[in-house]
């Protein structure tokens, strides 16, 4: 087993780290405060090839490996995890769903602009009555002889207000429930698509999350992704990849908060000595460094499973769980170690703590990950 990153992986990690410092860090506090997405920085990520990292060149991707993409999400999320999730939803969920399951025509039509950052994608599965129970979707897409007519409301859609394209899951045969669910690419420009309520969130405040409403949207047959009635499997397979992306976001938050705490313990003097002279704090940092490294290895293992064509559903669920728990644990310990300063916005860790919470919830709560993992143990 080789624990060293390749030269290419190190180079992508460095380039992304620099971009995060120059393009994201200067405005991250303001973006969080104002709930504003840094669109120019995202476009630059696209121009630099980051959005398309793990995809074949024939669709406008970079042909890099999956671990390189994971490293990039991690570096972005260390600084601005709102951009981290926007990136992951666009790359893992929207583009990943097309790569896994769409026709050649759909891949060629939609991927190049999304992978170059000119357009944005989103993933529309969740509904008010279908959260953890993803099979409870009520949105319908009924064939009228010429097109599928889409009606329904999707909620908590990351990138919703910004996205040009949606990967939408809807019932083409409502009687059959899960077996009647199908997937479609829907364009925001199609008549009948609108953005509903834009959410006011605790964390990831500069990511844009909203309802998406479909009213008699006529979707052409060729926009179906995968076979009719196989939408649930399309969504589940796609979410396996998405969970690796969220794990990378979580690990990025954990590392970002850890780095700030480490520096603070060196710089801050109390009782006539730097904070790190208190063994309680250094032991705490030792524990957090172990937790981060454990999470990192589980994440990189899941990425390698995907990259090398092994089954990655379970390793992705495990990685999502440990990395997002690490994000929460490390960020809240960092706030505590920074004391009163940790509670102030300019020290960044309070934002990281707010951002960390959602990583334990979306793309399958960590309880759902336990369901996935335990299901494999007793099958
Ligand atoms: N890959 C491919 N197929 C899969 C699969 C996978 N990983 N997991 C399940 N399937 C298939 C099964 O094989 C089965 O197919 P057959 O009927 O043909 O045998 C079918 O899907 C149903 O499987 P289950 O019986 O296991 O499904 P379930 O109803 O018990 O639900 C669940 C399983 C794991 C709880 C699932 O509902 C789930 O993952 N829930 C969480 C939903 C979720 O993650 N939502 C995230 C929303 S997206 C989001 O947050 C994005 C964002 O904007 C940030």
UniProtKB/TrEMBL annotation:
InterPro entries linked to this entry: Acyl-CoA_DH_CS (IPR006089), Acyl-CoA_Oxase/DH_mid-dom (IPR006091), Acyl-CoA_Oxase/DH_mid-dom_sf (IPR046373), AcylCo_DH-like_C (IPR036250), AcylCo_DH/oxidase_C (IPR009075), AcylCoA_DH/ox_N (IPR013786), AcylCoA_DH/ox_N_sf (IPR037069), AcylCoA_DH/oxidase_NM_dom_sf (IPR009100)
Source organism of the structure: Anaerostipes hominis (ex Liu et al. 2021)
Cofactor(s) in the UniProt record: FAD
Membership in a protein family: Belongs to the acyl-CoA dehydrogenase family.
Gene3D superfamilies reported in the protein's UniProt record: Acyl-CoA dehydrogenase/oxidase, N-terminal domain, Butyryl-CoA Dehydrogenase, subunit A, domain 2, Butyryl-CoA Dehydrogenase, subunit A, domain 3
Residue span, Acyl-CoA dehydrogenase/oxidase C-terminal domain: 229-374
Keywords carried by this UniProt record: FAD, Flavoprotein, Oxidoreductase
Stored PROSITE patterns: ACYL_COA_DH_1, ACYL_COA_DH_2
Acyl-CoA oxidase/dehydrogenase middle domain location: 122-217
PANTHER family: ACYL-COA DEHYDROGENASE, ISOVALERYL-COA DEHYDROGENASE, MITOCHONDRIAL-RELATED
Protein name as catalogued: Acyl-CoA dehydrogenase family protein
SUPFAM superfamilies attached to this UniProt entry: Acyl-CoA dehydrogenase C-terminal domain-like, Acyl-CoA dehydrogenase NM domain-like
Domain Acyl-CoA dehydrogenase/oxidase N-terminal as annotated: residue spans: 6-118
């Amino acid at each position: 087993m080789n624990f060293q990153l390749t030269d290419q992986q190190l180079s992508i990690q460095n380039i992304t780290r620099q971009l995060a410092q120059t393009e994201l860090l200067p405005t991250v506090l303001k973006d969080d405060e104002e709930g504003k997405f840094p669109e120019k920085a995202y476009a630059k990520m696209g121009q630099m090839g980051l959005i398309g990292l793990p995809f074949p060149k024939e669709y406008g991707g970079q042909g890099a490996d999956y671990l390189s993409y994971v490293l990039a999400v991690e570096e972005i999320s260390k600084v601005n995890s709102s951009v981290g999730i926007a990136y992951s939803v666009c790359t893992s969920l929207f583009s990943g769903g097309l790569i896994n399951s769409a026709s050649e025509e759909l891949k060629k039509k939609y991927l190049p602009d999304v992978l170059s950052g000119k357009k944005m994608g989103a993933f529309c599965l969740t509904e008010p009555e279908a959260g953890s129970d993803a099979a409870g979707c009520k949105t319908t897409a009924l064939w009228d002889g010429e097109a599928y007519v889409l009606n329904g409301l999707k909620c908590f859609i990351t990138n919703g207000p910004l996205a040009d394209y949606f990967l939408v899951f809807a019932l083409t045969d409502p009687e059959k429930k899960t077996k009647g669910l199908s997937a479609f690419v829907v364009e925001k420009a199609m008549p009948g698509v609108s953005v509903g309520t834009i959410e006011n969130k605790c964390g990831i405040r500069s990511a844009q999350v909203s309802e998406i409403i479909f009213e008699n949207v006529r979707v052409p047959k060729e926009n179906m992704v995968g076979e009719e009635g196989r939408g649930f499997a399309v969504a589940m397979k796609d979410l396996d990849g998405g969970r690796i992306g969220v794990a990378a976001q979580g690990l990025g938050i954990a590392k970002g908060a850890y780095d700030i705490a480490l520096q603070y313990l060196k710089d801050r003097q109390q009782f006539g000595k730097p904070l790190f002279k208190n063994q309680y704090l250094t032991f705490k940092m030792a524990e957090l460094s172990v937790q981060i490294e454990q999470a990192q290895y589980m994440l990189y293992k899941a990425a390698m499973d995907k990259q090398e064509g092994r089954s990655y559903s379970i390793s992705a669920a495990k990685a999502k769980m440990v990395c997002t728990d690490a994000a929460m644990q490390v960020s809240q310990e960092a706030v505590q170690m920074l004391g009163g300063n940790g509670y102030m916005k300019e020290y960044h860790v309070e934002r990281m703590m707010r951002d960390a919470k959602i990583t334990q919830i979306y793309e399958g709560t960590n309880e759902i990950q336990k369901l996935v993992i335990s299901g494999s143990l007793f099958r």
